[in-house]
Amino acid sequence: MKKRNLGFTLLAAWLCAVQIAADDGVFDQYRDLMGDDNPAVFVIDEGEELWFSPQGPKSATLEACDLGLGPGETAGAYVRFPRYFADTDAVMDLEARLVHCMTTIQGRDLETVTAKPYSLRGDFGTEIEALVTWLAAESEGATIAPEQTHAAERAMYTLGEEIFFYRAGPHDFSCATCHEQSDMRIRLQALPDLTSHAGAAEAWGSWPAYRISQGLVRTMGWRLRDCFRQQRWPELQMGSEASIALQTYMAVNAAGGIMTGPGLKR
Amino acid sequence: MKRLTAGITIALSASVATWTAASDDIEAVLQNSFIAKNQATMDRLERDAVQTVCSAPRGMPLDNDTLTTLREQRLNAVALPANGHYLGDWQRGAEVAGSGRGLQSNDDPTQPNGGNCYACHQLAPDEVAYGTLGPSLMGYGARGQSEAMLQYTWTKLWDTHAYNLCSHMPRFGAQGILTEQQLKDVMAYLLDPASPVNQPAE
To answer: How far is CA B99 from the centre of its chain?
Structure first.
């Protein structure tokens, strides 16, 4: 609790200080100031609790869930996603895999568990967000190493690259519009070059992240959905092929980088 | 005109085939991965000729004749102001340049769209929150107000691909993002000697 109060006091002070000069340097300063204090710790705890809580008609925990390293193996699982699973014969991201485990192991209804994967402003975080945050923390410091051995995983990368450059909508925006050049920014927001290893590693490794401006932890799935909102496209669905393909493109470009998340962002 | 269009279609298909072979069904993937939300409808995922050609990953070779033909087609389609007057009100133009709202699924479609020029361009020297994806336009009015300059600037705003095919910039006129009056106001914001864009930096 003490930790939380300190964090929020610093946050309030910082928010006053950055009204005008909200550039990346200031965010870096804020992160330094916070040190290891990231409000995401509460979400991490919540995610761990949820993993071990019996839920659904089968009153089962998620301990039998195989995230690719064997049932219940959570340490280091995050950094191997997206990956191919033989039991579903599909390349899955972590969010899609969690949904699979909730419906099969816990016997929960697919529509119910996917109805609202990402919280809205002012909400408490969702179950998916909490689980992803905890599992990311279970890979903190690990090397990003998505699987690319199965043909379906390699095809997913190629598809992701193609979607990354796909221009559409009234503004002709693609992911590449903002994310294929280095050292660029929108207004004051720095943009990672996701076609480069350095940019992809920084971006992929720092999500999920506690978004200070929203008071919520956000996952990479949410990040992509919100990018497409800004691209003026329709809404990207969690666990969809396009979402998994783009995450594969990013994760593979990031391979060899270090998982630093759950991070702390503007 | 009809024959010209047919020629472009054939040329585009040929050039596109050099790099999209990996997944023929990308449109189907997108149709299954997105859902319509408010004004962001699914037809927005369908690409026109410019979008299709400009979806080639950087460095992918594209046929030069195709590009030239398409660029000329865009240039010929530019609609200059109906009454011949290019310059509106720079103060209203400043609002358009600063506003990023419009056409997103969560935007109110009854409100006017913004141009969001500051997302990518430096303009007035006293606005520090500018992006860098596009070139700085600070002091743009120093280029003067000759007919050629007015027409060039208008065309650039209307459809950037008329000059620079596959530029990242949106087609503010051709895609109906801004109205003719809003474009005139942005023109004034860029070119009027009284506009903040054309004041010396302090």
So the answer is: 15
Could you tell me which residues are beta bridge partners of residue B34? Answer: A236
The CATH classification of domain B90-198, taken from the options 1.10.10.10, 2.60.40.1120, 1.10.760.10, 3.30.830.10: 1.10.760.10
Partner-chain residue, chosen from B29, B50, B132, that has the shortest CB–CB distance to A242: B29
Examine the pLDDT at A4 and tell me if it is beyond 60: no
* Identity of residue A259: M
Distance CA B44, CA A87 (A): 35
Q: Which residue has the tokens 């390699």?
A: A154
Domain positions in chain B are 1-33, 90-198
Min Cα separation A128/chain B (Å): 19
Residue B200 has pLDDT above 80, yes or no: yes
Contact state of A181 with B23 under an 8 Å Cβ cutoff: no
Mean pLDDT within A170-183: 97
Catalytic residue among A16, A65, A101, A227: A227
- Beta-bridge mates of residue A143: A258
Q: Do A163 and B40 touch (CB under 8 A)?
A: no
**DSSP 3-state assignment of A186?**
strand
Q: Which domain holds residue A173?
A: 6-265
Cα A225 to chain centroid, rounded: 11
Peptide bond preceding A208 in cis form (omega within 30 of 0): yes
Please report, in angstroms and rounded to a whole number, the separation of the first and last CA atoms in chain B.
52
The encoded tokens of residue A203 equal 């971006």
pTM for the full predicted model:
0.89
- Using one digit for the tens of pLDDT, what is the confidence trace for A95-131? 999 999 999 999 999 999 999 999 998 888 999 999 9
Q: Supply the angle between the helices B147-158 and B180-191 in degrees, to the nearest 10.
A: 130
What pLDDT is recorded for position B195? 98
